[in-house]
Specification:
Length: 85
């Protein structure tokens, strides 16, 4: 799961292969549930793992602008509090 979420195809492929090996070594291959699981692992092994991350530059710019406005708006109030002491 981690490999799929992080777009690590080598780790993902290795995990699928290990699961297939455990299934073959430890479970009855004639059992219907084992067959279904094996088929599912084969299907997963054939799917590429890649993550297309969104471009966060516009969002980052908006957040930075917001923080700058908030900081600038807070400075006069803080300055006034400092002079009233």
């Amino acid at each position: 799961q981690w490999a799929a979420l992080n777009g690590e195809p080598q780790v993902y492929s290795q995990a699928i292969t290990e699961a297939q090996n455990v299934l073959k070594a430890n479970f009855n291959q004639d059992d219907p549930q084992s067959k279904v699981l094996g088929q599912g692992l084969e299907a997963l092994a054939s799917k590429p793992v890649s993550v297309k991350t969104p471009d966060l530059a516009p969002t980052l710019s908006s957040v930075q602008a917001y923080l700058e406005r908030r900081h600038a708006a807070g400075q006069p109030a803080e300055a006034q509090q400092g002079t009233s002491r």
